[in-house]
Amino acid sequence: MGSRSRGGRSSSGLLLLSLHLLLGLHSSLRCFVSAAGGGGSGEPYVGVTIGTAVTNLLSPSDLAAFLRAQRITRVRLYDADPRLLSALASSGARAIVGVPNDELLALGSSPATASAWVSRRVLPFAGANSSSPGLISAIAVGDEVPTALPSALPVLLPAIQSLAAALAAANLSSIPVSTPLPFSIVLDPFPPSQAYFNQSLAKSFILPLLSHLANTSAPLMLNLYPYYSLMQSSGVVPVDNAMFKPLPPSLEMVDPNTLLHYTNVFDAMLDAVYVALKNLNVSAPVPVLVTETGWPSYGDRKEEPYASRDNANTYNSNLIKHVVTDKPGTPMRPGAQASVYIYELFNEDLRPGPVSEANWGLFHGNGTPVYLLHASGADGFLGNATTDRTFCIASDDADEKAVQAAMDWACGPGRSDCTAIQPGEGCYQPNDVRSHASFAFDTYYQSQGKAGGSCYFQGAGMVTTTDPSHDSCIFPGSKLYSNATKSDGANTTSSQTSDAEGSAIWRLRTGRGEGFLLVFRFLLSVMVVIMTNSNLWT
Ligand SMILES: *[C@@H]1O[C@H](CO)[C@@H](O)[C@H](O)[C@H]1NC(C)=O
Ligand SMILES: *[C@@H]1O[C@H](CO)[C@@H](O)[C@H](O)[C@H]1NC(C)=O
Ligand SMILES: *[C@@H]1O[C@H](CO)[C@@H](O)[C@H](O)[C@H]1NC(C)=O
Ligand SMILES: *[C@@H]1O[C@H](CO)[C@@H](O)[C@H](O)[C@H]1NC(C)=O
Ligand SMILES: *[C@@H]1O[C@H](CO)[C@@H](O)[C@H](O)[C@H]1NC(C)=O
Ligand SMILES: *[C@@H]1O[C@H](CO)[C@@H](O)[C@H](O)[C@H]1NC(C)=O
Ligand SMILES: *[C@@H]1O[C@H](CO)[C@@H](O)[C@H](O)[C@H]1NC(C)=O
Ligand SMILES: *[C@@H]1O[C@H](CO)[C@@H](O)[C@H](O)[C@H]1NC(C)=O
């Protein structure tokens, strides 16, 4: 299983509104993919990382069959296990293979060792004479070395260069060689316009690395976790923003220097990376590949409150939609959508550490899903994911009073049809606040055409891709919805209700005690924009 370390994930100094970042460019990913020999169209894609600290891991051949069944065609491995690669060769998948951190020293100090590694690990699965010329899509040398194994930093670039040279000697320079970096090397990521690389790494390591990557058309690999930005922000980062959930425009994060609006933390992290690159005077736009991102589905109740199945489902589903369907790029680099690898395929139950460490997987080790991820329009990624339907339900994280108040609003001023949750009606059971509120929220959300902000409910609502319908209770927006159950009156759009909701949200946000200073600074940045606008328009 290699020496993977995720220490870098939680070590960054996040400031302000807590955006971290990462970057990604897909015009260059395009080159990367086509240069890498047959990836096809060069469209942004979603892959999955495969860690192996799993009890009774599927055999290599079962794993290959499983990937085929789930239509997963891009994977990242943390080593280059020949048994697994042999099996994958028949699955049609393409794999990033890894050099574990504990092999860096040997490879970085001896070009001959690097060359032997390529002969043993890569050549059998690549090149004109192998049966799977496209199997290996890239080589990831080490993982988060600046934080996980800083002592190996001096040999990291030499290792990359030796491996690239060995590949070139074998006519395989089309396989890019890079190293996944932790986002924590980017400091002051929010607002993104102020980001910069850690100065103690910039000249000695990052600049030469970027020069080599540019020379070899290899991407900058980054592990990017909005989840950790949220966790480290002491409640200041809106959880919705971290999960790509729409916020009302008035609540969007705005970078006061660029006036760019950020609808999600992921894009802000990427833009911070772009800014940091620009501050190094890196002229060529280096393509970025997100080699890890994800969300845990379970964690310590007290310490890791955002680790829940609903949140993991929401983040990963929205991520897939963002990358594969919407592919907007970032506010600074519109259209340049980075490809991503979801961390991770299986729950690694053998991983030590916080409870969440063992709960990042989409599937249990035996291949049963941890939660049903419905990835819209993702070219069949994850097999049966077919729906782009989303629903609005009561959030796990909101307290019951807030849920009740929001339901009262939805069924009252919001004019949702709440007949179905009255006694004797189809959605009365189960008779509890959250179930009833979910129906009311979804009714409102669907009636608003799922408009941005219409599932906010002062933080009590959350978007899900899992159809919440049950028994005889069919939620609006469900494909189970038929003539027979259609309710009328769901068609109320009025600017008054939106305004009412908006101002309530402002009250709630500004009323949060904890981290008030940070919120205040954020609000100031918003106000700068508002004031700037009024200067412009009046
Ligand atoms: C590939 O196979 C052919 C025929 O077996 C052989 O002539 C050629 O030398 C091989 N090329 C490489 C690079 O191994
Ligand atoms: C590499 O490719 C060149 C030309 O395409 C060819 O002449 C040479 O023999 C190849 N080398 C190997 C090791 O396959
Ligand atoms: C910058 O990098 C150095 C060397 O890796 C590290 O010791 C330091 O803590 C980092 N600074 C910040 C603010 O993260
Ligand atoms: C990249 O290429 C340029 C020009 O050929 C060269 O000067 C530079 O040293 C190369 N960078 C690295 C890290 O090899
Ligand atoms: C980038 O270029 C600017 C203007 O030429 C210069 O002032 C600055 O020091 C350069 N930054 C780096 C990191 O080289
Ligand atoms: C996807 O559908 C196939 C065929 O209908 C089924 O065998 C498989 O178990 C399904 N996979 C999941 C994850 O539901
Ligand atoms: C709606 O009902 C009509 C008449 O009962 C039927 O012909 C039609 O197929 C139904 N539509 C749907 C979407 O079920
Ligand atoms: C809602 O109202 C709009 C505009 O009046 C109309 O176009 C739409 O068809 C209505 N939708 C439903 C479900 O009645």
TrEMBL record:
Reaction(s) the record says it catalyses: Hydrolysis of (1->3)-beta-D-glucosidic linkages in (1->3)-beta-D-glucans
GO terms, biological process: carbohydrate metabolic process; defense response
Signal peptide: 1-28
SMART domains: X8
Key word Disulfide bond present: yes
GO CC list: plasma membrane
Gene3D superfamilies named among the record's database cross-references: 1.20.58.1040, Glycosidases (3.20.20.80)
GO molecular function: glucan endo-1,3-beta-D-glucosidase activity
Top-level enzyme category: hydrolase
EC numbers for this chain: 3.2.1.39
Pfam families: Glyco_hydro_17, X8
Keywords: Disulfide bond, Glycosidase, Hydrolase, Membrane, Plant defense, Signal, Transmembrane, Transmembrane helix
Presence of keyword Signal: yes
Domain called X8: residue spans: 390-475
Transmembrane segments: 516-537
Family of the protein in this entry: Belongs to the glycosyl hydrolase 17 family.
Protein name per UniProt: glucan endo-1,3-beta-D-glucosidase
Organism of derivation: Brachypodium distachyon
Name of the gene this protein is made from: LOC100827650
